[in-house]
Amino acid sequence: MESLEMRGANRRKLIILVLVVFFTWLLFLQRTRLKEDSEDSYIVEGLGHSRIVPRKCMVPEWNKKTTNSLPHAAEFEQWRTRRIGSHVEIDIDIISIIHSFQHNILDAESRLLSAFVYPDQISIVTTAFHTYGKRATCLYYDCNRREIPSSRFKSRVVPLTVVTCPRRYGAEYVSLSFDDDVESQEPIPLIFRAYEQPVHELSVCVGPLYGPESKWLEVVEYVEHYRLLVSLHVFKKFEIRLIQGTSMFYFTLFNMNDYDRKIVDDYERLGLAESTKYFMEYVKLGWMFHLIQTHECHHRSRFHSKWVINMDIDERLIYNGPNNFIHFMRSIPPTFSEISLSSNRVLKFEELPEKFKSEEQLLADMMFLKYNQTTEISWYNLKGIVRPEMVALLFYHWSCRQFDETKVMSVSKRFAYVRHYRSVDENKLNSNWRTFYNGSLIETRLEESFEKRLTAAVLKRVKYVYDQRMIHCEEIPPWIFNRFERRLLDCNFRNESQIIDNENTGISGF
């Protein structure tokens, strides 16, 4: 009897032990799962409950691609090993000037500026010239910024400050590490450029915006000019806008105050512009970083735009040929990667206004109305319009290395040229250009109907962005005045003087 009772007690103990082990194992498994989920999930809280939602990476179809080689790798390696255009070459040419920049600003940090994913490769643009030719390792990250296992690739910095990397399945962020780096830089997102067909037929790479002179009016004149880049006789015959000109502007913001920045932000709001912001260790950026801007914009426009006009903010393309400029560009054979344009200079004597004051003052300050003393058209400072995916290397405004033996076409000034509003201020870069100019000056203007349309477009855009006023107190319901003190209300009565501080949108004069 006692043995039966002992056996029953032992069985109960065994069952209890088994249950304890079982539930302990379940608890351990659940904690392990919760730990895994916490690393790759987030908690959604609702009314009286919460649930864990896995943050899994959904890879779109276009990003399900891995490549193991680089386009034009042999050409880049040949240029690097032969040091084509390097500073040690005896024969001085434009390429040597470009690559001599690798020995400029020697202590610059090589920061990640931007990265673009194309159909067959990725390009990462960095900010230091002196890294040219050095080894760099491409690092790939998924949507959670986790490095993709076994995905690294050894590459080099070429051309200039650009590192080319192959594609990787599911990569949404990229980074670089150099041989002497202790750790890689924080990854940056890939900008999608894997288009089958270009989104824009004609775009503009706007030269870098830097220096103390105000930029807002120059930006408006520049953008509206290229938007109106159409055939003049088309308007005269049909009196309608059949084909618009440039549809995308790529801006680079070196140093820009808030007031000037408003107009660029407005064009971005309209979907007409993209801008690259430079975050570097230097207080100011100037002309010595122009080549980085040129190549960043060049890679930004690849597969996004078919043709790209490469012009500074004070340069305007003039088209005098048949039909319209878009029609002319469509007539260029596919074997050409660039068309070159001659230019003249229009003497600019004064600084641009700091702020918009009135319509009358704006009309007096518009550069294309105010300045008309012009030099002869020449090839001394040629400008280029390029097919970005067919060009390897640029020198400021035109290409100096093309892919696949493509050709460059020079366009007669009878069809198109560039009108360059060039400052004569002795404190500006290359301001002594008139010392070396031996030609004559003549008075020139834009074509009359184009000038009128441009004037109207500039007026409309400037007034939309900068013609601002204080809120009238009469617009505010009485109950708000009863609830809040006057000093808390940013308003003026209509009979009060209206003074706006455009720098910080504050109020003065109360």
UniProtKB/TrEMBL annotation:
Look up the EC number in the record and give it: 2.4.1.-
- Tell me which domain of life the UniProt entry assigns to the organism this sequence originates from: Eukaryota
What subcellular locations does the record give?
A: Membrane
Q: Name one GO molecular function term.
A: glycosyltransferase activity
Recorded topology in the membrane: Single-pass membrane protein
The protein's matches in Pfam families, at most eight in alphabetical order, are given as: Glyco_transf_92
Where it mainly occurs, coarsely classed, is membrane
User: What InterPro entries does the entry give?
Assistant: Glyco_transf_92
Give Gene Ontology CC terms.
cytoplasm; membrane
Keywords for the protein's UniProt record, in alphabetical order: Glycosyltransferase, Membrane, Transferase, Transmembrane, Transmembrane helix
Q: Which family does it belong to?
A: Belongs to the glycosyltransferase 92 family.
Which PANTHER family would you find in this protein's record?
GLYCOSYLTRANSFERASE FAMILY 92 PROTEIN (PTHR21461:SF9)
Q: What is this protein called?
A: Glycosyltransferase family 92 protein
